[in-house]
Specification:
- By secondary structure, this protein is of the alpha+beta class.
- It is about 25% helix and about 30% strand.
- The chain has 3 helices and 8 strands.
- Strand 7 and strand 8 form a beta hairpin.
- It holds the Pfam family Acetyltransf_10.
- Keywords: Transferase.
- GO terms for molecular function: acyltransferase activity, transferring groups other than amino-acyl groups.
- This is GNAT family N-acetyltransferase.
């Protein structure tokens, strides 16, 4: 399988079909697979940038939501990081995070990047330069840890 085509769009630039694919994948992973019952459309999608990895047949394979520093308390914020279940195991998560970091650095140069990681992925995010900034805490029944990547000059 060839790698996905990456797009990063503002909310208002998403098509209805594209938004549907994003919300569906987020529900498949967070609500059904991880059993996290929460209001996913949390009011932060509109000011965000939406990074999508799409296959040749327009299937959404990977997604991350990028929040600007004005929302993230002075740091850009990567969240809602997901890969489709049928696309896992081939390095797509690593490609998604690499692309997410690049997009944040391009959109908000000189700004640190933060994320709330599932605790078992601490080393994965650490490989991108993120370091823990909190103790482990519970979020929707899943252990999480806050992490930060300092700005690069």
């Amino acid at each position: 399988m060839a790698g996905p085509r990456w797009t990063c769009q503002r909310f208002d630039d998403l098509t209805v079909r594209g938004l549907y694919r994003v919300m569906r994948l987020r529900s498949e992973v967070f609500v059904i697979e991880q059993r996290c019952i929460y209001l996913d459309p949390d009011g932060l999608d509109e000011p965000a940038w939406h990074l999508q990895g799409v296959s040749a047949d327009e299937t959404l394979l990977a997604y991350a939501r990028l929040l600007p520093p004005s929302i993230g308390g002075g740091a850009a914020r990567i969240g809602r990081v997901i890969t489709a279940a049928n696309a896992r195991g081939g390095g797509l998560g690593r490609a998604l995070m690499s692309q997410a970091v690049r997009e944040c650095q391009k959109l908000w140069p000189g700004t640190p990047i933060e994320l709330g990681a599932q605790a078992h992925l601490r080393e994965f995010y650490g490989s991108f330069g993120f370091t823990p900034t909190s103790d482990v805490y519970d979020e929707d029944g899943i252990p999480h840890i806050d992490m930060r990547k300092e700005a690069t000059p």
